[in-house]
Amino acid sequence: MAGNGKDGKVVANVVKAAVDRYGASQDELIPILNEVNREIGYLPGEALDEISSLLRVPKSHLFSVASFYRMLSTKPRGKHVIQFCESAPCHVAGGREVWIAVKDYLKIDEDQTTPDGKWTLLTTSCLGVCGVGPVMVIDDDIYGNVEPSQVPAILEKYH
Amino acid sequence: MKYYRSHVLVCVDPECLKKGAHDVMDAFQDELVAQGLIDEVQVLETSRIGGCDHGPELMVYPEGVHYTNLTPDDMPFLVEEHFLKGRIAQKFVTEEKAFTDEELSAPTAKEIRVVLRNCGKIDPENIEDYIAEDGYQALGKVLSENTPEQVIETVLNSGLKGRGGAGFPTGKKWEFCRASKDTPKYVICNADEGDPGAFMNRRVLEGDPHSVIEGMIIAAYAIGSNQGYIYCRAEYPIAVKTLRIAINQARSMGLLGKNILGSGFDFDLEVRMGAGAFVCGEETALMASIEGNRGEPRPRPPFPAVKGLFAKPSNINNVETYANIPQIILRGAEWYASMGTEKSKGTKTFALAGDVKHTGLIEIPFGLTLREIVYDVGGGIKDDKKFKAVQTGGPMGGCLPEAYLDLPVDYEAITKAGSIMGSGGLVIMDEDTCMVDIARFFMDFTQDESCGKCTPCRVGTRRILEILERICAGKGKPDDIETLEYLCAQIREDSLCGLGQGSPNPVVTTLKHFRDEYEAHIFEKRCPAKVCKALIRYEIIDGICTGCTVCARNCPVGAISGERRQTHVIDPDICVRCGICKQVCNFNAIVIN
Lengths: 159, 593
Description:
The complex is a heterodimer. By secondary structure, chain A is an alpha+beta fold.
């Protein structure tokens, strides 16, 4: 499936759309990378090639930027991405136990993807919903006040 | 503008959320749709209607009826009674008096709301709501009556200091930028609120975005800029969306763009999103990120006021700083300076988190003591446990023990105590918190978030983390404390940016105030708070254990043995210290040693 990303989207088209939307200049680079990453699920080398030629920015620079930011990934990610808050308020509120429960359930560690490609487990910095910690985000859904015992039921909602 | 006959405020404080406030709100809205009332009743999320003791709860205006103890199943009846038939549904009204309007804007007597005054009261996606609360009046006043110099003077006289953490006088910053000759100039809002536990800016951006926009336009007028950027972190998608809506509305009303309010002054704004890097909250790193580079800091000087974004003079302030500006212009510098302490004027928002009863946002004048914040505003420690420490200033801040509870909170006093004000996160910790574990935790964060540009921060934080991990694992060495102190001093002195220089702070302050805990871990191989797994043992007390076998059946690793009706025993070599046995024991027969 060369050239195709998440849901069969053609990489070149996604890049073109993002560049058209924001404009082909270097100071629009991060919005462009964000959008491509969101549409395809990660930033394949092919997308970076494409952006490099449209923006006239060396690929080395693109890679240095893409690898710097936590939300951009140069590796494929699973169908669903879990972002677990690892910040102090969630930690104090019992986050560690929930984190262990998630890892036990998925049988993977931080920054890993399950062999079936369904889940990628990431940690995130504070999401600003500390009042309801521990907090985790699955795709775009926020779960607060999570207890270890609730983890299987939450994850089983996703197919 | 849409007209509603009723406004309904739903409390979404953590306690109400726990009890299902969102389910009630969804059911309420579904019912409004079903009854064809959705265009007549406006539903807003807010905080602190009552005390959350009877949540989920909602408040209906203009009647001012306070409904409590609601469930989603109650909604059909409530909507039919109140909104169709126009009768108050008495069975959901409690005796407890709801807060009046006055109290609503300042939930406890010690709070004063300047920055948060509109949050939860107005619809953030409707500019007219903001205008109805005197919004954009300050802008009109400035453009028609004041010279840029007068604006700067007002801000100087108000005593407002940068709310992002460093506390540099805002008026001075504007003055420097105005004095720079180079053009164009940029106005930037730092909305990269990355400190764990701090979400004051998120609340303002999502609840009252126009106050920030208005503050930025006034700043632009004062320094002579025509283009601004709001750099918002990608972890706040709702804030980004709200800001974009607000900017479009302001533009369509002629409050942004060319010839604002017919004054001849041009200014426009753009939202830029980060992509997840804590260091981008540092101003030079933030500007590098807007330019499309890795968000790495650079040495200062030159300061942004001289050479900032795109190497042009730039003024960069925090969300809360800008949100204060319209009120200062409208109500006067003297009014603002009348609140607070001698050197720290005005109010400050804080996010209370951790082991405190009422978590959430507060806004108080400078000068309240930590004790007043924790006990009067925050309601005390959860489960009435003992206070142990408060962590101020985020990951670059420090932990202050009980002895500092009567410290009046302002920039000077907090700095003198060895911590920093930071952006306003306050993490309260109770007696069950291990301070070595907390220090390890913060170093794990800073080590992870170090951008890697300079060696002291990149390597130093990693070495500190390794030592702390070893100590927590029961493998501490006698000279570890000295090594830590040496490393902390080096990092503090030699790092490039403020984040690197501040990164050892959690270790420095815990070493200063909780040295005995480090010593217990290292020399006695003991964790006084019973947190560090390698240093604790679960044991079953003979005589209390009834031999019910519940613990043995629930142990995931089979570490517990014993005959029925006989005292059970935990094998420490097999036990993984998960604590399940202690949770399931009905007789409190299991203790941690």
